[in-house]
Known about the structure:
four-stranded antiparallel β-sheet, 124 residues, mainly beta, seven-stranded mixed β-sheet
Amino acid sequence: VQLQASGGGLVQPGGSLRLSCAASGKKKISITGVAWHRQAPGKQRELVAATTSGSSTNYADSVKGRFTISRDNAKPTVYLQMNSLKHDDTAVYYCAADLLYYTDSEEPVVSRLWGQGTQVTVSS
């Protein structure tokens, strides 16, 4: 089972991007928790947004009102919609998801996986 991140790129200030992180490798995968982190050059990795299986969400103060975290268990994919982007949002973004899936012998497995990171650059 793995997470494949996509959606990063170069965007002007004020623009929008949607990051995706798709889980694959098993027929039945459920996403029970999601978090997006980011790491800017020379800075520590920070939590940007998180949501639990109960649908409660938390956002860093710096992104509240601009970013939205979501998931689609049917695909299964997690998303981070980023609007009104600023220079300070430039970073490598990482998704982390708590996944429930089943082995070939139908044993349930709960595991936290990380995506490979996707670069977001906000520049004019």
